[in-house]
Amino acid sequence: FVRDTGPGIPSEIAHKVFEPFFTGQPGRGGTGLGLSIIRSMVLNAGGSIDVESEPGMGTRVLVRLPLIDDPEPGEVLNDEDQKQPSMRIWVIDDDPIVSHALESGLSRMGHTVRLFDDPDDVLDALREAESNVDVMVLDEVMGAKSGKEFAPRFRQRSEARIILVSGNPDISETDAAGLGIDAVLTKPVFPDELIRVARSSQ
User: Fold this and answer.
1) From 17, 50, 127, 188, which residue has the greatest number of CB atoms within 10 Å?
2) From the first residue on, what is the mean pLDDT of each consecutive set of 10 residues in the chain (202 residues)?
3) Cβ-Cβ contacts under 8 Å for 30 (sequence gap 6 or more)
4) What is the DSSP letter of 93?
């Protein structure tokens, strides 16, 4: 479990904390997707997640996951995935909960992940001679910066597949392609979905 000593969560909104796009800190840059993504990942693994909180007493998040046996040496858990080469994936998102959740899932699938919270840093990285990337997962809204504005600049410097993720996509496939974007996904987005789309856009 994870516990903090903060102000706690008011009872009138406590039941909403796992809802996509709900945030208790409006106007502070959060997307309201972090806990929603975490909950989906835990449930997909056969576990459960609960939040206990009282105003003035902090908050405790309790995650329960089932025990599994270690695989036998040489056992292949997902034969189809094992046949596919791993990819170098850059996740560009200013929400650390979202980006680290994706990093965890993608890394467990055997992919190499690099995180960025500022698209300008990506441009700097693309100027590095040794910089190699197969897939860019690009958030549409990062504070005052727009993923749609940076996608063409990334495309000029890289042949990587660019996947735009958005809570409310308002771009057509034709317009996306014109910006150098290979696919558009609606948040919340999960690692297996990203990989499936990345491979299909090859």
Assistant:
1) 188
2) 84 79 61 72 84 86 84 53 79 90 90 95 85 91 93 94 89 92 89 90 66
3) 23, 95
4) -
